[in-house]
Amino acid sequence: MIRLINTLSGRVLTLTVIFLMLAEVLIFVPSVARFRVEYLQERLELSQLASLSLLATPNEMVSMDLERELLENAEVLNVVLRRDEMRELILSGDMPAPVAQTYDLRDPAAPVLIRDALLTMMGDGNRIIRVIGMPVKGGGMEIEVTLHEEPLRTAMLQYGLNILWLSLVISAITATLLFLAVRRFIVKPMKRVVRSMVLYAEDPEDSHRIIRPTSRVRELMAAEVALSDLQTQLTRSLRQKERLAALGGAVSRISHDLRNMLTTAQLLADRFETSADPTVKRSAPKLIGSLDRAIGLCERTLTFGKAEEPAPQLQMHALRQIVEEVLEGDRVQTGADAGEVELICDVPGHMRVEADAEQFFRVLANLVSNARQAIVGTGKPGRIRVSATETDRGLEIVVEDTGPGLPARAQENLFQPFKGSARRGGTGLGLAIAAELVRGHGGALELRSTSAQGTVFCIRLPRPLAKAG
Q1: Range of 257's domain?
Q2: Are residues 270 and 316 in the same domain?
Q3: What was the pLDDT predicted at 107?
Q4: Which of 42, 152, 320, 379 is the most exposed place for a label (fewest CB within 10 A)?
Q5: For this UniProt entry, which segments traverse the membrane (predicted)?
Q6: Residues 430 and 413 both lie in one domain
Q7: Which residues does residue 133 pair with via DSSP β-bridges, in sequence order?
């Protein structure tokens, strides 16, 4: 029983029975009040017929036995008829007790009738009541009878019991029909949707498990269509991710082998610098630079191809020291191009950052390297400036350059691997890796501005927990 109530159809069945019974209660009280009026009105009509029988006799006289029989048929004790402004006792019997209550049915109000009906049903004993009404068909101006209340109460209770049983039967039939309708048109389609979801979850790559909308109910049809679209998109995404994973594995293996080959080529190229041939001497630095960039690309590809970066080992470090190491490393790597780009460290010496020094070094190195490549590509001197400020929320580190700015295509796919590069032949892995490392520190890497006057990147790091408290 509890399992049935906890189902949708079971709850609908329970609520239907409750609401139907509530409706029956609201109908029951006026119905009983109406039955009481009709019962008393019937007593008045029978009493009027009895009085007419008396008036039709000579001298309006009948025997005691006949008078008693007329009163018993009308189920009253006395009958008083008012005609032509005269009120006279037509039929009279024994009065075992004085009149306890008088009811006037000539112009009753509905609330009064409901109140009197409830009082009658809840009363006890066999009181004597007086009822006043209008004679039918012009039989006089007023008719008044006295009668016992117990037969009225018994009739009302019997009528109420009949109404109760009828209400229960109607409620049971209605609830059963509604229960079956809900199961047929709502629960069954919902179970079909749930089964489809469970079946699809077992093998989301199987397109045959995608639900096919068939419901005729508009809302359920919309839900099935939405679920079908979602499952279709998810299946395609999973297949695409599998292909990308396979491709990534192949690229990682190729990059690993290619890096070994390029390292060997780099060792051989180093010997060219000792050659006495002027042409070889001029070409050697460019060859070595190309090999360095190719090896760097392979290393970044291998790094990005890992399942995930290791969790950062957060410690407090002097931010200026890390920035200076990044700038000095950039000067050493660029060598001959170092004079074309001015590197400025504008970080206060006292400022400290809670970070993984090695990972944060890679972030800044990527940003500085991209900025330098953009400036060198213009063939004009430029400047890269790294600054930092403390805010209420934490630390902001800004890397700005005087390069040509990012093209629209690079801005649209910024921080996306193999899409967000601003250079021809670039991969965009540097920014993607940098953004991932910053997220690992609980911060965010964002492009603040870019134009023909230069580009500004901002690293936002949260305030250390020790200071936040």
Answers
A1: 218-300
A2: no
A3: 80
A4: 379
A5: 12-33, 163-182
A6: yes
A7: 143
**Could you count the other beta carbons within 10 Å of the beta carbon of residue 16?**
18
Asked whether residue 98 falls in the same domain as residue 38, the answer is yes
Backbone angles phi, psi at 215, to 5 degrees: -65, 145
325-358 pLDDT tens trace:
888 888 876 664 555 788 999 999 999 999 888 8
> How many of the other CB atoms lie within 10 Å of CB of 198?
10
Cβ partners under 8 Å of residue 49, min gap 6: 74
Burial class (CB in 10 A: 0-12, 13-18, 19+), 101: middle
Residue 429's identity, in one-letter code, is: L
Separation in Å, CA 195 to CA 42, 186, 214, 224: 64, 14, 14, 12
pTM of the model as a whole: 0.43
Highest mean pLDDT among 13-27, 35-49, 412-426: 35-49
Helix (H, G, I), strand (E, B) or coil at 128: strand
* Distance, CA of 149 to CA of 146 (rounded, Å): 9
**CA-CA distance, 401 to 453, in Å (whole number)?**
8
